[in-house]
Amino acid sequence: MDLHTTIGLTAAICTTFSFLPQAIKVIKTKNTKGLSLEMYSIFTFGILLWIAYGILGSDVPIIIANVVTLIFAIVILFMKIKYK
């Protein structure tokens, strides 16, 4: 694995899994009061665009990181809508 890919994968792991504590907290507490519906809606759309960008450029770290991030973001967005 080259340095470029290693840096990309490391960055992807850090930024992707930074959402895990928020997702766990929302699932456990069902409290989404402090979360912005607009922000998570725009963010989720942005993640979809990053996935498309990664696919078009055959950039595996971008694709993997954003698919995982999309899962976390969708869980949080769903909970925000459900428990609004």
Structure overview:
- The protein is mainly alpha-helical.
- The protein has a single domain, classed as Monooxygenase.
- 81% of the residues lie in helices and 0% in strands.
- Helix 2 (20-29) runs parallel beside helix 4.
- It is elongated, with a radius of gyration of 14 Å.
Give a topology summary.
Blueprint: H1 3-17, H2 20-29, H3 37-56, H4 60-82
Helix pairs in contact: 1-4, 2-4, 3-4
Features of the shown structure:
single chain; 84 residues; mainly alpha; Monooxygenase; elongated
Quick synopsis:
The chain has 84 residues and is mainly alpha-helical.
Count of domains? 1
What is the correct CATH architecture?
Up-down Bundle
Largest sheet: none
Rg estimate, integer Å: 14 Å
Instruction: Outline the low-pLDDT stretches.
Output: none
Instruction: Give the ordered list of helices and strands.
Output: HHHH
CATH names the topology as Monooxygenase
Total number of helical segments?
4
